[in-house]
Amino acid sequence: xIRMEQRTLGRTGRDxxxxxxxxxxxxxxxxxVEEADAFGVLDAAVESxxxxxxxxxxxxxxxxxxxxxRYMKDRPDAGVFxxxxxxxxxxxxxxxxxxxxxxxxxxxxxxxxxxxxxxxxQLHCPPAAVLSSDAVYDALDTLVAEQRIxxxxxxxxxxxxxxxxxxxxxxxxxxxxLNPFRLKPLDExxxxxxxxxVGIIARVPLASGLLSGRYTADTVFAAEDHRTYNRHGEAFDxxxxxxxxxxxxxxDAAAEFAALAPEGTTPAQTALRWIVQQPGVTTVIPGARxxxxxxxxxxxxxxxxxxxxxxxxxxxxxxxxIRAEVHPRW
Length: 330
Known about the structure:
Layout: E1 6-8, E2 15-17, E3 21-22, H1 35-47, E4 52-54, H2 63-74, E5 81-86, H3 99-113, E6 120-124, H4 134-145, E7 152-155, H5 159-166, E8 171-177, H6 189-196, E9 199-203, H7 226-229, H8 247-258, H9 267-276, E10 283-284, H10 291-299, H11 308-326
Parallel strand pairs: 3-4, 4-5, 5-6, 6-7, 7-8, 8-9, 9-10
Antiparallel strand pairs: 1-2
């Protein structure tokens, strides 16, 4: 097994690899993934030094959690920190975020993962009002007291939501979209998290694959792939698909980004390296549907830091092609 750089995940006090493994893909929401391929991805990640898996109770209606649970049962020596999420199984109303529902959702995740005490449970992009509710945090504290979970966190859509969560003393970490096509968290969220000792989990790091540079304007995705059915936010927040970037705009910008990749480095690895070196980031969670992808993603942790010229070029690309056109609401 390769040893990867570890960072402390905020108030959990636990160390995790700077490149983790996102498992939304393994649930089937990006097209069907066979079980053998899913286990191959998890194993390749662990062998490449990954010690952090991120999942959710709605990824494949629990399939992702179940696959991780079975993998961890077979690999108890893997030493992986598993973070899951809850809250999207119910209608997105603040009144649904109550202790009884938390216990029910938590029981399901614990059964899926085969773990009595979950390492970390994140509220899964809840309504903004939830993040300001004292009763919600009291309920989460109860889950900790009952030893159902070791720590809690939030996954958010906006920077304002992230800042609200960071101000809460019990929140261990915040998960937020961050990539070269989504820079706004750099302004306030990352500095606030760093000062408060809150971990940052960077998700959608490749803008749903755009930053891999593999797609053209003519690329067609499977019908069951969210990159087909959620381009305009039809099923969930638009920012989760291509980081909210119009696909054709994103393809053109991604071609320009690909030219910034250092020799011998892929655009995807360059994007991951860019995220890892942002002050305040704890871990980044790219997904993978193949062993090769999992290994390539993990290898980004060992790349040398990008030079200032490349960082400046990323900012310039964002300002020219992305920010003003498609990201005014972020």
